[in-house]
Automatic annotation (TrEMBL):
Entries under PROSITE patterns matching the protein: HTH_ARAC_FAMILY_1, HTH_ARAC_FAMILY_2
Protein name: AraC family transcriptional regulator
Keywords: DNA-binding, Transcription, Transcription regulation
GO molecular function, one term: sequence-specific DNA binding
Top-level taxonomy: Bacteria, Pseudomonadati, Pseudomonadota, Alphaproteobacteria, Rhodobacterales
Length: 296
């Protein structure tokens, strides 16, 4: 069963990568790519990064630059501004900066001397990461949760898929204020993404964070609520700095899911913060990751 799940996920990510390849000169949105590949928007970003080895935004930029470099190599008289616009960049300078970051030389130097690149131009990019996992990960629990209710506030922006990096102190203070209130014993702190981040460094994506309750309560901490339906969740633990949460997420989607007897449900995964952010000792932070699943 596990290998069937792995094959299905690999096939869908391959389909997503091929769609990107066929539309490099067009506007590419993560939500549209996910829809084309028949993948849940709640899981697509993490699945793509886990299977391809890099975030989708980074992959798209790299493929556009590689394609542009090959066009420059084949036609040294090509106008760089036209090439930049055709590669999805809005200006000559933005394209040149990205090109130099990718290949180590500017496009004008490359046009005159294609062999001057510090890093080579890939003719064909490997589609799927196939190396065996360096570390196995196991779910600590498969939990059937009843309906619960998230009282949330909204923040914006991610860094490598996480939002604590940018707003660490402020979010921590808001969580502390929530914990200081008289709350039911089963309340827990959590966060989730209501919309798909367009990339793992999306400055505009909203993040909901707050307290989860088995019943909706009266509280002045916040007035917005989201209701999670009854369902099954695979539960994983991350011990340590929030900066490395993305590694645990990648292991879940890349190493655990393909071999599990479960498939993803179309619901939001979330993080539960068992120990609040402690700037003085990140190693003591315990986070539980809940991934919505159902029997395959």
């Amino acid at each position: 069963m596990g290998m069937d799940t792995q094959d299905r996920n690999r096939a869908k990510i391959t389909k997503a990568a091929q769609y990107i390849e066929d539309n490099l000169s067009e506007v590419l949105r993560a939500s549209d790519i996910a829809k084309h590949a028949n993948l849940s928007p709640f899981h697509f970003q993490r699945l793509f990064a886990a299977y391809m080895g890099e975030p989708i935004s980074q992959y798209i930029v790299a493929r556009r630059l590689e394609k542009a470099a090959l066009e420059l190599k084949d036609c040294s008289k090509m106008n760089i501004l036209q090439l930049a616009l055709g590669s999805g960049f809005h200006s000559h300078s933005a394209f040149s900066k990205a090109f130099k970051k990718q290949f180590g030389v500017s496009p004008s130097i490359f046009r005159n001397s294609p062999d001057s690149t510090v890093r080579g131009v890939a003719q064909d990019r490997q589609f799927l990461v196939s190396a065996p996992p360096s570390k196995a990960i196991e779910a600590v629990d498969v939990a059937d949760l009843g309906q619960f209710h998230l009282q949330y506030r909204e923040s914006f922006g991610t860094h490598e898929g996480q939002f604590f990096r940018q707003n660490d102190q402020d979010i921590g203070q808001q969580f502390s204020a929530l914990l200081a209130k008289d709350s039911p014993p089963d309340m827990f702190l959590m966060s989730c993404f209501p919309n798909t981040p367009q990339n793992l460094n999306d400055a505009n994506v909203p993040i909901w964070f707050g307290g989860a309750y088995s019943i909706q309560i009266d509280s002045d901490w916040g007035h917005a609520w989201h209701h999670f339906d009854t369902g099954t969740w695979a539960v994983f633990e991350h011990c340590g700095d929030y900066r490395f949460l993305y590694q645990t997420w990648n292991q879940i989607y890349r190493n655990w899911l393909p071999h599990a007897d479960y498939v993803l449900r179309n619901d939001m995964p979330f993080e539960s913060y068992v120990t609040p952010s402690d700037p003085s000792d990140h190693s003591r932070q315990l986070t539980r990751i809940y991934v919505p699943i159902k029997k395959a």
